[in-house]
Amino acid sequence: MTRLIRRLAWLSLVFSLLSLPAVLSTAPAMALGQPVADAPSAQPGASAALHAHHERSSDAGPEAFIPIVVPLAFFGTVVFIVAFALVYRFRKEAARLELARVLAEASKPIPEGLLAAAPRAAPASDLKRGFVLVATGLGLSVAALFVGQREAMGVGFIPGFIGLAYLAVWRIQRGRPERGVEV
């Protein structure tokens, strides 16, 4: 189930990054905060200018909503995936503790692993994560370059640098012996 959540998170990230060039190229001038040339004033004929401005802004069409909907959809998806993962983890922990409670009430022995904390991921997984994230960052940057959005190339630096951090952690921990958690 955890793999599914991770894959959904990556798909959400990739989908959002792929839609970034469309958002940047189709954003209307009004959505970017540029001033309207014929704003109403106190001069005669101001109501005609206001009426013309209202007609022009109502004819913007669905592309006027793209700068609003795409970020909301992206962040909404990320929030949904994180919330789903947290609820899943909470339910799994609650089921484990409920089993321990039932065993204790029935005066049966509780297995050692049932109350133990989940083991930390092996350092080799930091190496794998690091390489995957660096490759993802490079892939996103190259994809942005091929699409012609040089400004969006920097988005690939985010997973790339996170991957470099994982590689640094792997390198630092490689020489250290594993320590057991003492209670």
Polypeptide structure, described:
- With 183 residues, this protein is mainly α.
- It folds into 2 domains: 1-118, no CATH class; 120-183.
- It has helices spanning 2-26, 46-58, 66-105, 112-115, 123-147, 157-174.
- It is flat.
Structure at a glance:
This protein is mainly alpha-helical and 183 residues long.
Task: Label this structure with key terms.
about 180 residues; mainly alpha; 2 domains; 6 helices; about 0% strand; flat
Termini separation comes to 30 Å
Number of strands: 0
Number of helices: 6
| Overall SS class | mainly alpha
Spans with pLDDT under 50 lasting ≥5 residues? 26-32, 35-42
Q: State which percent range the strand residues make up.
A: under 5%
Residue share in helix: 55-70%
- Spatial extent as radius of gyration: 26 Å
| Structural domains: how many | 2
The secondary-structure element order is HHHHHH
